[in-house]
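#onboarding

Welcome to the new folks! Below is a worked example of what a typical request in this channel looks like: someone posts a single protein sequence, and someone else replies with the predicted structure as tokens. Don't worry about understanding the tokens yet, we'll cover that in week two.

Example request:
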Amino acid sequence: MPAAFLPDHVLIRVTGPEAEHFLQNLITTDVESLPTGEAVPGALLTPQGKILFDFIVWREEDGFVLDTTDSQRDGLIKRLTMYKLRSKVEITPAEDPGVTVIWGDTYPDGAVEDARFAAAGIPVARLPGRHGEHPRDGYEALRVLAGIVESGHDFTLEDAFPHDIGFDLNRGVSFKKGCYVGQEVVSRMQHRGTARRRTVILSAETPLPPAGTTISAAGKPIGELGTVAGTRGLAIVRIDRAGEALASGAAVLAGDTPVDAMLPSWTGLSFPTSSEEA
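Example response:
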């Protein structure tokens, strides 16, 4: 049961009699249908539909927990408080020092299953506080293997839509619940099928270059390299351009390194093979 501590993660608790209604009308996740013991991705968007804050959310007895990074904590609390108005909710930073991620077949009491990894067939759970000393590299390698991107590592906040990071396919966005901030833009992208940037898993025969390296296809830039784990890495790319290159046999490169690109299997997506299909 390997367990890695993430010291840069913090928890925010949203509690009170109206906590569920408050979050349901504000964030991308359908918290009304969220069962106890399961953690799902979510975001608070800009009115233009881009990700302003990202987090993992799960239900507790008296409300909900948002697992986010320490760099986002103060801004997220401030923004949630701005929307609070007269809602009967309390928004407080938790005292737990960081979050531990655990992978394997068994979890300790209090851990919640991370639904992002479950979709990829990899059992991972999250537990508040410090409960393991396994190197963090193991967790990052699992993220790459599963095709799971996170802000600060793979994309910049206010620069990505939920579709770019697979939220439309891993329960990070609900298209059945009512309005939330940025909902109109996200729904339009869904119904018109206009999402062209997607997360891909890259692999090479040699170690990949560092994060931030340009990914190109047929000589044209299509994205930037994010998290790297040896010969594998993550990137958010223009899949229409990648598809055209793959169909024509043109090279896909991370800097000067030839790479193979694949869409995570849990997405059910495939590369478009022509500009018309894209």
